[in-house]
Design brief:
Blueprint: E1 17-20, E2 23-26, H1 57-71, E3 75-80, H2 86-89, H3 91-99, E4 104-108, H4 111-124, E5 130-133, E6 145-149, E7 160-166, H5 177-185, E8 187-195, H6 200-205, E9 211-216, E10 229-232, H7 235-251, E11 256-259, H8 263-273, E12 280-283, H9 290-298, E13 304-307, E14 321-325, H10 334-341, E15 355-359, H11 364-377
Parallel strand pairs: 3-8, 3-9, 4-6, 4-7, 5-6, 7-8, 10-15, 11-13, 11-14, 12-13, 14-15
Antiparallel strand pairs: 1-2
Helix pairs in contact: 1-3, 10-11
Bound molecules: zinc ion.
Length: about 375
């Protein structure tokens, strides 16, 4: 019998296959089911893509180097610090691809980010037809630019001439072989990975003649990333520190995110904090109203939010302060801590802010995260 390869996830391990009637199924990607897109079914018509955005000199430089890499048929890894303006860096290459009538995809592991990106892309690419695909929202498969979660990439096989995957180091994409297969299988041209915190293995895999590795250490506003303060404390003292900080921020009208390692802890912590500090709430991935709560927080309705890692990435809030509660927890590795710290000081004119890692001890991950931020700041 001829060796069977799963067309969706690329699996060729026989033990994963089973037959029902004459049809072969693959257990490895059985959860990825739905309508598939055909590359022949859609032609990109764009000729004159209008772009409205401003780039810093540093962004422009990376932008044109990415375009050259794509024109040379290379895959690219862009390492850009939190707040560097990663999304805008790839616009120029997307516009080029559209003018060449190519299929363009922009994927990210997280649904909330896809939803947030849609209006931004519509604003930048006024003439292009832009669609968004994520769990529960998959009726349209064909657009000039397809924004989607990495989970939805299985619908596209050898489809994208240019595929950009943002936050490749985020859950659930990172370390998930099936999702990675599906992603690479969706590309017929070249792909670009983007991350604020790539690990050494990922960087090494892009350091060869077929790939390009680009780094952007300067934030869009060219000010330093706030360096975290590491505070060690246990018992009642850590709660007193937290309450004092929140009261101080509130007095100065500064909103604060309090990151907690688990949903359970985030809820409990809020129930305790609200006895002492008003104007807060808690939010998590399980929370039906999370989008509304985050919007209310942005609008100033709440002064602090006890949150889990759902707000670790992608949020920009004016004058934000950040406290990581129980920062010694194993869930918080160096990369997660850098991402969290990267939420602070992103807005032009509001580049400062406090980042506090509050743990039972000061561990290696906390120290490494602080070092990573300090060395990025050295490029200023
Ligand atoms: Zn499969």
């Amino acid at each position: 019998m001829e060796r069977f390869i799963c067309p969706i996830c690329g699996n060729d391990d026989e033990t994963y296959f089973f037959k029902r009637g004459e049809v072969i199924y693959c257990r490895r990607c059985i959860s990825f089911q739905g309508e598939l897109a055909s590359p022949e079914a859609f032609n990109v018509e764009e000729d004159d893509v209008s772009l409205t955005y401003d780039l810093s000199i540093e962004q422009k430089d990376i932008s044109s180097r990415f375009l050259n890499s794509f024109k040379a048929h290379k895959n690219t890894l862009i390492h850009a610090v939190c707040g560097a303006g990663k999304t805008e860096i790839v616009y120029e290459t997307i516009a080029y691809a559209l003018n060449e009538h190519m299929h363009v995809g922009f994927a990210t592991p997280r649904k909330d980010v896809v939803i947030e990106l849609l209006p931004r892309f519509k604003e930048a690419f006024k003439k292009a037809r832009i669609i968004a695909l994520y769990g529960g929202h998959t009726s349209e498969l064909y657009g000039d630019i397809t924004l989607l979660t990495t989970h939805q990439l299985f619908r596209y096989q050898k489809y994208f001439d240019l595929l950009i995957i943002d936050e490749v180091d985020a859950f659930p994409f990172k370390g998930n072989e099936t999702l990675e297969h599906i992603a690479l299988n969706s590309v017929r041209g070249n792909y670009c990975y983007m991350s604020a915190t790539p690990d050494e293995n990922l960087i090494a895999s892009f350091q060869n003649e077929h790939s390009t590795f680009l780094e952007l250490f300067v934030r869009f506003h060219k000010k330093a990333i706030p360096v975290p303060k590491l505070i060690w404390s246990v018992g009642i003292i850590k709660y007193i520190i937290l309450i004092c900080k929140l009261k101080k921020y509130q007095k100065n009208h500064l909103p604060c995110l309090v990151f907690c390692p688990t949903i359970e802890l985030s809820k409990k912590l809020y129930l305790f904090l609200k006895l002492f500090v008003p104007n807060g709430t808690s939010v998590s991935s399980k929370d039906e109203e999370r989008m509304q709560k985050v919007q209310d927080f942005k609008d100033g309705k709440y002064m602090y939010l006890c949150t889990t890692s759902i707000l670790e990435r992608g949020v920009t809030i004016k004058d934000l302060q950040v406290i990581v509660f129980d920062a010694h927890h194993p869930l918080y590795n160096r990369y997660a801590l850098v991402q969290i710290a990267g939420r602070v000081g992103r807005k032009i004119g509001h580049e400062g802010g406090e980042v506090i890692f509050l743990g039972h001890r000061i561990d290696q991950e906390m120290v490494e995260a602080k070092k990573d931020i300090e060395s990025a700041n050295e490029h200023l």
